[in-house]
Amino acid sequence: MQSLTISMLTLFAGGLLSLMVYFNGLLAKYISPFEASLIVHLVGLLTAFIIWLFFRPKTKNPHKKISLWPFFAGIFGGIAVAINGMTVNSPVGVAGTIGLFVLGQVIYSWFNDTWGWFGSTKRRLNTLDFLQAFFILAGVGVLIYG
Q1: Whether the predicted pLDDT of 143 surpasses 80
Q2: What gap in Å lies between CA 124 and CA 110, rounded to an integer?
Q3: Comparing C-alpha atoms, which of 108, 110, 84, 100 is closest to residue 138?
Q4: Which of 90, 94, 111, 119 is most buried, most CB within 10 Å of its CB?
Q5: CA Rg value for the chain
Q6: CB 85 within 8 A of CB 101
């Protein structure tokens, strides 16, 4: 049951991501992609802050050292959203943009798994990994050129 709940939440989050990409691309039509990216991130920051207010964890040691790596996610997210604003309004379209984003995440994950970046567990790639990336790339090709 827990697996089903997580799967449904994941699908819901993917749907929200698709909506975000669409609306950000639409906004970038009227203002620059960088301004649209700024607006999207400010709305995300406000939303995250509100959620944090209601669900903040009760830590036992508030002075515990925190790794700085997680704070770089915002930089990469900002770049991704700005690129998204430029590509959604191109011949690539929304579906192609999201497909290429997912393919980029898969390829990055391969590097991360192979070399254990940022303290993650090292894992060897297998045939299924390459097969999944092939099908993602084929799907993106169909979306863009089909």
Answers
A1: no
A2: 9
A3: 100
A4: 94
A5: 18
A6: no
Q: Are 21 and 84 in contact (CB under 8 A)?
A: yes
Phi/psi at 81 (5° precision): -70, -35
Token pair recorded at residue 139: 């799907």
Q: Give per-residue pLDDT as tens, 10-41.
A: 778 777 777 777 788 788 888 887 788 788 88
Closest CA to 92 of 81, 82, 83: 83
Virtual torsion, Cα 81, 87, 89, 94, nearest 10 deg:
-80
Print the SS3 string covering 77-142.
HHHHHHHHHHHCCCCCHHHHHHHHHHHHHHHHHHHHHHHCHHHCCCCCCCHHHHHHHHHHHHHHHH
pLDDT at residue 127, rounded to an integer: 92
Span 60-115, pLDDT tens digits: 666 667 777 777 777 777 777 777 777 776 777 777 777 777 888 888 888 888 99
Report the C-alpha gap between 87 and 94 in whole angstroms.
8
Segment 112-129, tens digit of pLDDT: 889 988 777 898 989 998
